[in-house]
Predict the structure.
Amino acid sequence: MRILGVDPGSRATGWAVVAFDGPPALLASGVLRPPVSLPFEKRLQTLYEGLQAVIDRERPDAAAIEKVFAGINPQSLIALGQARGVLLLALAGRSLAVGELTPAEVKRAVTGAGNAEKLQVRRMVAALLPDARRRTLPLDAADAAAIALAHGYQIAIRGARLTRPGPADQPRDLSQHDSADASRGWRRRPSG
């Protein structure tokens, strides 16, 4: 499975495609930066067209985008919300299933702490994705890779909780398992 992570922004939108066929691997990443000299509506159009071009080129199976929920400056928050709406429209226009995660969910999934700093997130992305170690990702692209990783982990955990092969490889409901089965299942390593 290939997941496109999107870190929305009206001035810079990070994107990254992470493959989950085996250990997670960074396939591609970048930052969409519309010229600030353009009128706002043209910058939004540039983001929309740019993300659709990324989707067409990279062919992800699913996408994940960060939720917007708070901000210090109301005007910046409104611009971010408008950019996020346009990016969601671009994802929907290419019929991608979209997961939405809060910044704290992303940070917790990647670093183990919901209040991690951007540089800590970038270091953990480089540690988790071998291809990211070879180059220094821009912060926006590293955030997008973290969003894709967090969504991939959520999918893996949800799948592990819902079904797991049992006798004769028949799926079974894990809510019926005993404690001995639970010790053999996939569990996230504790942080801290």
